[in-house]
Specification:
By secondary structure, the protein is an all-alpha fold. It has 6 helices and 2 strands. A two-stranded antiparallel sheet has the order 1-2.
Amino acid sequence: MTHGFDNVGRRFDVDLKLRNWWSDAVVANYKSRASCLADQYSRYTVSGTHVDGDLTLTENIADTGGLKLAYMAFLDKLYDDQQLNFTAPTQDVVANAWLFFIAYAQKSCSVERAQAEQVDLITSVHSPDKWRVNGPLMQSDDFSTVFQCPPGSPMNPTAKKCDLW
């Protein structure tokens, strides 16, 4: 769903015609926010080599936005099914939220040979699996809250978090 609004998909209108249908102000705001994400991913490394945040931007936008939307849908369904109050989460809700984030991380559980990793860093539009998981989670205040990551910890950096949506 988020690919429809990433740095490529945003250029197509409702009829899938290539045209700029966003106002100049919206495009400028979007580019500024997307640049934050590209810069952030460019600081990540694998075996001493930096990720190319510009090359991987489309997928990083999709991963980050997808996590956010999926978690919102998860909470909506969980609270609706259990008729719970958002302001007072129970231990059951927290346990389910843990499982949500663990399942999210497991989607990218992999091992890759060092040579393949280096080739992927310069050719793939996807960030390495480690950063496809940790990058979006580090941006997520929900993740930090659920896992009680203290501000300044690796998974809850105090540096500016990039929020595209």
